[in-house]
Request: fold
Amino acid sequence: MKAAVIVFPGSNCDRDCKVAIERSTGASVDMVWHGDTALPAGVDLIVLPGGFSYGDYLRCGAMAALSPIMAEVKAAAERGVATVGICNGFQVLCEAGMLPGALLRNERLKYVCKPVELEVTNAQTRFTAGDKGRREVAMTVGNGEGNFFADEATLDRLEGEGQVVFRYLENPNGSARAIAGIVNGAGNVLGLMPHPDRAFEAELGSADGADLFRSALASA
Amino acid sequence: MSAQPSKTLAESAAEFGLNPEEYAVILKRLNREPNMVELGVFSVMWSEHCSYKSSKKHLSKFPTKGPRVICGPGENAGVVDIGDGQACIFKMESHNHPSYIEPYQGAATGVGGIMRDVFTMGARPIALLNALRFGDPSHPKTRRLVAGVVSGIGGYGNCVGVPTVAGETNFHSGYDGNILVNAMCVGLADADKIFYSAAPSAGLPVVYFGSKTGRDGIHGATMASQEFDDASDEKRPTVQVGDPFAEKLLIEATLELMASGAVAAIQDMGAAGLTSSSVEMAGKGEVGIELDLYAVPQREDGMSAYEMMLSESQERMLAILKPGREADGQRIFQKWGLDAATIGFTTDTGRLVLKHKGQTVCDVPLAPLFDDAPLYDRPWTVTPARPALEAIPDPADWRGAVLKLVACPDLASKRWLWEQYDRHVMADTLADSATAADAGIVRVHGTKKALAVTSDCTPRYVQADPYEGGKQAVAEAWRNLTAVGADPIAITDNLNFGNPERPEIMGQIVRAIDGMAEACRALDFPVVSGNVSLYNETNGAAIPPTPTVGAVGLLPDSTKRAGYGKLLAGDVVILVGETRGHLGQSLYLREILGREDGPPPPVDLTAERRNGDLVRGLIQDGIVTTVHDLSDGGLLVAAVEMALASKVGIALSGQHADLAMLLGEDQGRYLIALPAHQADEVYDRAEKAGVAAEPIGTAGGCEIAVADAKGTLLFAIDLDDLRAANEGWMPAFMGV
Reply:
């Protein structure tokens, strides 16, 4: 099993993702520089980590979405490789057009760092199938622009197609329909604002994030 | 001697904060008049901020050595050994004046500056703390300052990706015109890969990298060494602007450059920017340095030599590379997209020589800048002792008093602010501000060890008795580390005071340092780094003396740690340490009776150590996991905090059912709790150690109930009411 974590200038959860994947799954993890033009051969999971790529000085994720490596990430995702964007990584996936919607400033205009309980809205995706049918998981959020937005038609479609994967039990940031994470139509690209990479062992408050990485790689 | 200083230069010297005697020394050392660049260089190097001219004599009283100390004060940060070939590097520094003038940028650049002090020495920053003191909540500026400072701290630390795990926030009218923003950074390095600032020899390239130099922050160090008045807002242009994205790139590039083996010496450009970094590197190495300022990457057109030397633009580093290694630097700087240039070389002249566009604009000997900075033994007077308090009657309305106390600004939950800080990035946080624990805890990545970190000071104690208050600040930091199960290692101090030229203020400084030094010695708790911030006055009114103590401890096994959020119904609650009922300077007195009277509680350092060693042993041996130290608000407040965090009530009973016993602030005490059938081990150990340990209550129910020795109920308050009071104040105050 092999995973790749993309490192943008300003990524700050890249190491966290590597450690979380290694400890949860035993997979080997390559760090891939944003300026590279190839992914490691035979990669089974691609992770776009959290952070403040390019300082988030334009729109969050907008600059990173144009990085040279993103063409390869898109191509791999189209081939069906499991791809996860966490926090800033979710923003990058939206900016890159790989997921619908956008992430706006939080409702109260402040950065929010807190534990969140999530409803597993769709336990049949390749990222949640390993949750053994669990309906609720715990993680933490840490973001200033995690307020998921899409037009009503898109939201209806996401819900109708089972693309809403995680929903907040208590909405921390004003996200539309309390959506915390979604998958693309093909079901292999996941974006979520909560951090599975900060919830991979009980000592950190929750080990529920480990299940996500395990599921993603088990399905590869 | 060539004599009379020309009027303009002498006037400029005064404007730059140099007094006539200091200016006369410059004339003597140079044997001529300085030009404006040279005068600027002297004035910042001799500012209070850079030279410690008022405090140095007294700072030498601190114990700075110990078996774990690798590097004490004098470098960018202190370095201690944490075993297994690893070192912890840490320091706390103030950014008070800039934060008052421009709270967002002032606080943000304070965080950035302290991180640079730590990674400059080769450490990856792994934790941030901050100690904040604001004015009275009713002061018209307070709310705006809180909002700005908090978002500045979060905006910078969150982006760089270092967790902000602990801190303290107080409010008092004494800070109305001069808030305090003290930021601390803790980093981790290999003990054999520490980097220092002294240039090792002549003939080596001096490389500048990081952000470009602009006109921001010119004379910031001088501003930080002056009092404020009503026109202080006009100093806004001297506040620097931070770029945390640049800082993140700078951290990665610096650590990569160090790992490449190219670095001979390195120094960040902090206060006094290029001046201080070049002078310190050459001066400490006893070499000379020559810079071509034209080569400095510049953000604006037409910058003069003077502006470049005094700019405090952020996110800049100066490195002296080993011979032939400039290509390594270029490769790394290019990867991280940083500006970089070789701007000079070290020499054997012992002089600072600056060239700009072919002209020599500064040529002065380094020794006087570095070594011969003025030193003052300023006159001081002893703070008059506060008379003892008369007997204070119990409140007629216990319930009202307790609810008011837990909602007072100093005790109220600060959730509103710490939820704006990323406390979890790096995925090693075991305890943060949201955790019911007396210190923040972060794992030493990839090991079973963890570091405990805390920041402490009780300014009202220091104000009433600087010596006892100084002792208390150190003892409380030691106690907080102990209460989570850590072995206390060392401290960094951030001494915030008023104008040292006033003998009563100098008296506070001298005696607080005496008290701190005494506690450091008694607790084997050396000072390894620090910062002095003086002239914290506005219109002649000084802040309460605030010697903030930042401390680091080591948990040898992070699974053996304690907090106070896991009390279980049925647990026996045990009070460790002696209670005499000291109400002088207590929070109860101030918040409920509106009096700041009496002497502060004395600190018996022998008992402090004995009690703490007992508690720490109980934690490290796995006997107790529920521990809370007693501080503001004494026994009752500690019990309330433990009950709220654990969501289970506590019934207190016995001889502690009166005001002095419940809310007195005697030092050296802890509340611990464990299942009743395991308590004998605690009593046995306490008896052997000669420590008072008595059961004072039982966990259960959903209220805090207090009964006297006869069993008569004094009061009972539902936890939901206490929680609403404790959590409600800050959101209501901030209007969100």
Notes: The first helix of chain B runs from residue 7 to 15.
